[in-house]
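Morning, I've got a small favour to ask if you have a moment. I've dropped the whole record in just underneath, so have a look.
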Amino acid sequence: MSEIKLSARQLAIIEFVKINEPATGDQIARSLELTRATIRADLSILTMTGILDARPKVGYFYSGLDLNPTIYEDIRHLKVNEIMTTPVFVTKETSIHDAIVTLFLEDTGSLYVIETTDLIGIVSRKDLLKGALADTDKKATPIATIMTRMPNILTVTKTDSALYAAQQLVIHQIDSLPVMDDKKAIGKVSKTRLTQLFVDTFKNE
């Protein structure tokens, strides 16, 4: 069984939370003389592995549970291809109106824009909200006018770790990451999927 290896900074975060719970992210950052952005990935790992419990608008708590090394190692070695889901594809000619309808019908957080089979852009809920509020003809205006275009899209590959994907989602505050094979999106990793994964893992334990 592999030994759990937390960084010195992560151990310091745990000790601070133990003494000061509930501790906010800002309080933790100040205690370490760092910025909130610097420790965001550490907090993500500590909450996803069950060491800390994050409660919105309250702060972080120490879970009090002994971390199971086997579960930690299983999650740490989990690959993107084991957790990715199928994206919802649209074309750049799709109107903002039709994209909004598709988003809700498919119950997804983002739409992947393709040309032939290549990924050329992503449209998020936030993009569509901005597009809906703009003074334009929603049934005529294509989503190409509001999408985030390649190469300005963060991506992962199927061999990247699930924890790496989770860190990217947290650090960059985005809803999903395309899983790429050359120029083709073969899947996606979303915050919703990762949250469900960690909840199910520790609930079953």
Remarks:
- The radius of gyration is 19 Å.
- Residues 80 and 160 are 6 Å apart (CA to CA).
